[in-house]
């Protein structure tokens, strides 16, 4: 599974819980991007899907009481469960009875080696799976705070539909408003192409219930570009998302116009018309996707080289690429998030991105997470044949790497929360189709780029998050820079 997609976490063990409160209020979500596996420092012993009234001061006792509270929420008596299947939870262990109940009820699973690993830190994806199972078993209700906390992850698992919206209308409307400013300069911005651009982006999401297992999601996007003396607000509106999603057995399926996101956005982050399948197994998941890369939308700073007088007149009828297929394998082991992907895209449009022709890209990545700190690295390899259309750069690099680090992150529901992050890029042109970054990566046609990004975000008030990012990119084969100062204020509702 941008810069505005980063998520953050914070420890819940630093302070004791308050009486009669749901554990969900302690769970800190990683900033703002979805989809992917994120870490939450929740020990497996303290997964709590109900409410507890007894919270002893000792941390060990606290863990114990919460396990038993979760088990009692299932309504299973002390004698009505099968023998505990986990080798590292012996009969004399304080959590034996509770863990056995949860395993018998199908709420928690062990590992292939037959262990439970109760002291291991969980990921948000694992926690969402437990919440989903508890929903299905009736251990918690659709209005539970944990359901709201893990709504995005539950949505990706395909269990959001009726259970989450049971007490609401058949169509739920949410959205966000983003006020953005982009300031560009450097050698790649000549002939008056640099300077400030301001625009307002509004995203409206519609989630419609089809049945208990399937739902429909659509996103209507409006961009208002403020330019000229009167700041008139020239705008465009279109559907960026329109897809159906649900489960067939353990397989989550989605089909329609949806988000394509590969290489953590370093390869591609834009619309696709596709069919996607996700299969979870243990702490890992496998994805496969087939479709066509959809039309490229023009955002405020994007310039059409064929019409330099109007930077907003982009050729919307051009696809990023034709047919594509992609696979990915992701998982979390200990403090490490690991992933590997392969993407094959036919007829990549160089007028949209920075490369022409059929491109084949694979990547491997690893991220180490400890507390609020994360450190990641990714290696990418593209198809050298795509460089043949660029005689000037036919011997340019076809691989690259990205190194990232981050500390915490702003959480929209937590005023005053904040985060910092940085990335270093060194990417040959064949490793990029449509990058997620807010810097001017597409200025380095055919040669690829290198450079860095530093940024930070802070929650000014509930559901109001401000972000500032600075990019300094340079061509891998030239000396020209493209510098971008990007800022955004997001209001969610």
Report what the structure shows.
The chain has 493 residues and is mainly β. The protein folds into two domains: 3-165, no CATH class; 171-492, Porin, CATH 2.40.160.10. The chain is built from six helices and 18 strands. The chain has helices at residues 59-73, 96-104, 124-137, 145-149, 151-156, 161-165, and strands at 39-43, 121-123, 171-185, 195-209, 214-226, 234-248, 251-262, 268-281, 284-293, 323-333, 336-348, 357-370, 373-381, 399-408, 418-427, 449-461, 464-475, 481-492. The strands form two sheets. The protein has a 16-stranded antiparallel barrel. It has a two-stranded antiparallel sheet with strand order 1-2. Helix 1 (59-73) packs parallel to helix 2. The longest helix has 15 residues, at 59-73. The protein is globular. It starts with 38 loop residues before the first strand and ends with a strand.
CATH architecture of the largest domain: Beta Barrel
Question: Might you state the CATH topology name of the largest domain?
Answer: Porin
The low-confidence runs, each spanning 5 or more residues with pLDDT under 50, are: 1-66, 76-81, 160-168, 298-316
Helix residue percentage:
10-25%
Order of helices and strands: EHHEHHHHEEEEEEEEEEEEEEEE
Determine the number of helices (DSSP H or I, runs of at least 4 residues): 6
- What is the number of independent domains? 2
Strand content: 35-45%
From the alpha carbons, calculate the radius of gyration and give it in angstroms. Answer: 24 Å
